[in-house]
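Morning. Coffee machine broken again, so started the prediction first thing and wrote up yesterday's gels while waiting. Chain of 948 residues, entered below exactly as on the submission form.
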Amino acid sequence: MEFTAANVEQVVRQFYCQGFVQQEIHQWLTSAQFSPAAWVFSWELISPSKTMEVQFFGASCLHVKIARFWAELPPEQYHTLKDQLIEKIAQFAKGPKIVLTRLCIGLSSLILHLTPDHWADPIQSLISLFQQENPNLDSTQRCHLLLEILTVLPEEFFSSTLTQSRRAELRHELSKALPHVMWLLQSLLNSSNLVSKVREQALKSLASWADFGLEPEQAEPLVTLVFQALNKHETFDTAVDTLVKIFSHPDMHRYPNTLQKLLMHVLRLQEMFQKAIVEKDMETVHGLCRVVMSALENNTKLLVKYIQEGGEKREFGLALLNIVILYTFPPGQFPVDENCSDISFTFWYMLQDELFECESGELRDLVPIFQPLYYNLIQVLLVKVQYPEEEEFESWSKDEQEAFRCFRQDIGDTMMYAFNVVREPVLGFFCSTLGQLIEQSKTQAIRWQTVEGIFFMFGSMAECVDLEETVYLPMLMNMVPSINFNNITLLSTALYMIGSFGEWMNSHPEILSCVLPLVLQGLSNSKVGTAATIALKDITRESLDHIRPFIPQILSTSQNILQKDILLERDAMRLMSCVGQVLSVLPIPDIMNYLDAILVPRLTNMQQLVKQEPSELVQKQLVFQVQLLSWLFSTLDTERDTNEQEGQMQKHHSGPKPVYVVMQQILPTVQELVAKWKTETSVVEAVSEMFKKSLTTLMDDFQPLANNVADMMIQMYESTPHASILDVARQIVLLFGSDASFTQYLNTLLNVVCNKTLQMYPAVLREPDVVEAFMIFLGNLLKKTRRLLVSSGVNLEAILKAGITTMAVAEQCVVKASCFFVIEFLTAGYEEESIKAVVNNNIQFILDRVLRAIGGEAARHIMEIISDVLLACCKYHFAVVNTTIRLLLETEGYPSPRASPQDKQNFIKTVISDKSNKRRMREIVKEFSLLCRGLLGTEYVEVAKQFL
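Came back before lunch.
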């Protein structure tokens, strides 16, 4: 369909009437915008007789053409286009607003093209133009149009794609106009007769131009007027946005004297803030908080400097710091009563960062001054972190509860910043508060929320506390048993807190007797099972050398909990990993006794489940039993190095490893399980994971099991190819490939994996994880034990072609894995004659795939790995590559019509001359790929370089 005004209007109406986006319509309209005809039909679509949707599309077309297709316009039409645009803008003075704005954006783009060569002073010209009397526009309308243009012009400048030199040139030209703009805005904002809409527009324009940076002389009177605009309800929101923009400019700190005067206005906002609090006007509170934080978080260096200078400057700095707490922690519960408390978190991080940039001596002098401030902060945080009453919390929406969870996490981070500055006295403050609460609880009820908040704060500081701390943390841990844990949230937080100090407990093992009873008690409650198992895991992992006296208690409790199946599945698996961790320090006979007690009921249950008729419930239970074994095998390592005796590193066990004994016991059941459930993905994943964990723990000791496990891998892969099977197969082959007793299974395994995967091409390409694992599997074999692959009878040519094919898929991870395999294949061909013959037969296929990828068929971000394939081709098979690449590139329009014969000759020459230089090869391929895509030397690439 031809791109005419009538046709475009019809399609636009159809687009908006359908209520949903049709891809074909969208593509047609996009093509219409890009077509040369858009220069003509756009003006017809902007006619006053058209609908708003059609007018908007016409204005958008003009902007697209000016912004992206400027080269299509002859220079003699530049000023005609400018006059037409200004005339149209005047016609739309009364709206619709979205059409007017789009036309103004188009004019802004035009200004960026014309300045300075074809329009030396656009801003001054526009100001003069709209100050002149116009019979069709009153003064308010002219003012509004001028401000609309001035507002969108900086936005268009900062959003446009420009070369670095052009951006610098335009920035210089626009900055020259800044005094004129500031004078205009100041005169407007000073006017008492200005209507509120125009005043609001003037504020928006100021915010837009603030991105260029305001000179001190211009900034001070203007910002004063913006602060005054906060007092008017109709301009409050816009004034807030403008102040945030001004204070957030990165150059503002260069004018400390002006900034100090402006910060005085920030202090004077307290009366308005208090009034808003009393009237519960939270929108005003939120706006004022935004202003305060934008003013202070971007000037923490100046605040610290005020404190260091002493005298009035210090008093001023402390006043500013104290209002951070006042403004950003208003009364009420976040997020239902107020939504300002989270605004200050960035400030506290930046303040801490600024303090730690000071010299150690300066920081030592500053800490006593900042301590009262941080104590005030800590007290407020302790209030804000607390949960509301349970009934109220349950009445909150899911979104509100999630917002509060994130808010608490931010409080935890802020608490860590505070601790980094004040250090151990913070611990003393919380210990003292907790001790007072415990004492009060003897005579009166106390809020569990306060105790929970203290535990949360301690947990937040855990990673920063010195391992040598011996005063407050022992005091804290000794107080834990005396607390009445009558609330699930309180108990859960206490357990998380205990776990967070697991590493500290390794240096203070005497504390274990205080906290382990509570952790073990928590295991019996499924509602705190997650916290309890995480705490136990952290303690057993970090303090394993000191856990022996508590092992009977831990294992008996764990056995009891696991038999009752009261924990969630994930928590039960985590508990099983704790069991393995704890067992690993015992003598093997003791380990086997405990394992019999813990595992025999589970293995019996597993045997019974395997014999049952398949069902979803049975499948779920079987997977869970196998996962429990996986988690046990992952931590039950009896060859863990220990330094318990005389600082000597020694292995304290001999004999068959418990994991091996258990694997032998369950092997018949697992074989039956695999035979029956090998088509179910969840079962395949669980069994493969179990084998992987046992392999990692046993390593060479896994050898007697290798044949049976390989047989199961073969069965499963023949039925359900899966990435997890390939991961296990890779480990087994690499570990035991040289074992003569494994040869038969090895050859079968390799042939089944390769043949089954190749049979599924191209369907297997829809499962990128399988393809990726297959390529990594083959690549590792070639890299570490290529003899096995060559002697296995695998069709080498077929797997090479599969690898070359998958170099062209969309998934980056698959392409990288495929290139890795092809590179290893090419490398192996340098020494292995059988592989070399396959390479020679397929070198044209390889080079064709590489050249097509370079020419534009593959994404640009994979060019490095593609260039590595080309490097391997040249490095190890240069003779055949030299001939083949020349023949391929002789084809006209190959690999891209944009590459001329001379370009291709230059490419061949540079590739050959740098055939062994990896860095240089990547540069050559990148440049040729840009040329083939028509991007070499474009503005797009120049701009992209700034971000690369």
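The chain has 46 helices and no strands. Going to sketch it on the whiteboard this afternoon.
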